């Protein structure tokens, strides 16, 4: 009876855990192995860069956000940090062959980097517009 | 004893199922709200591509949530959709600011041309 109970508990618990495999970063992911022959391989960075457009796009978006000065704005810097973190986690996932997990993390990184770039661009344009409108007021006032 | 163990086993199994499944529903709702806000914004017409990207991202999130509700990809897709909605709102604001700036510069130039004191030095500065 006890053996039966133990088997029941173990099998149900295992079934419950298997439903959502927990990855190294605490998220359940469905791994897609690199090899088409059913073998799990660790791709090199060269292979990764060539075959992973999401990684390329995320890296490019991150560089663009940095170039626009996202690090200097508090909100933009937060999104920049999220993008960096997700890019790093995506690379780690890629190194263990979890292509799907990596792909989603790169998409998240790209989206956060885009938000960071837009936040800083919007702030800059808004400030420039406000200063120019002030100038217009001064110019108009001096004509009266 | 066996009854208690069975109860424990069922509870544990349900907890195992509920944890990954519950989160995407909340995140998907947040993504839907964010995209709806972007769509409702009168400025969204200024950046139609960004709005389309947000709507497309939401469709992907809906599909992931439907097809694989317990997978991390459902949560990731909802996250991306929410961020794309933010991008849509921000891109609209960027375009609006850019137009305001252009109009202000034109107005300033017109005023200067009519003989107002020159503010060339001030207006010629970089926007940033």
Notes on the structure:
The complex is a heterodimer of chains A (144) and B (128). With 144 residues, chain A is mainly α. Chain A is 74% helix and 0% strand. Chain A contains 5 helices and no strands. Chain A has helices at residues 2-19, 45-51, 53-67, 74-95, 99-143. Chain A starts with a helix and ends with a helix. Chain B has 128 residues and is mostly helical. Chain B is built from 4 helices and no strands. The longest helix of chain B is centred in the C-terminal third of the chain and has 42 residues, at 72-113. Chains A and B meet through helix 1 and helix 5 of A and helix 1 and helix 3 of B.
Give the proportion of residues in helices of chain B.
over 70%
Question: In percent terms, what proportion of residues of chain A is strand?
Answer: under 5%
- Looking at how many chains there are and whether they match, the oligomeric state comes to heterodimer
Record field, number of beta strands of chain B: 0
Low-confidence runs of chain B: 7-21, 119-128
Low-confidence stretches of chain A: 5-28, 30-46
SSE order of chain B? HHHH
N- to C-terminal distance of chain B: 72 Å
Q: Treating each run of at least 4 consecutive H or I residues as one helix, how many helices of chain B?
A: 4
Protein chains sharing the most extensive interface: A-B, 47 and 54 residues
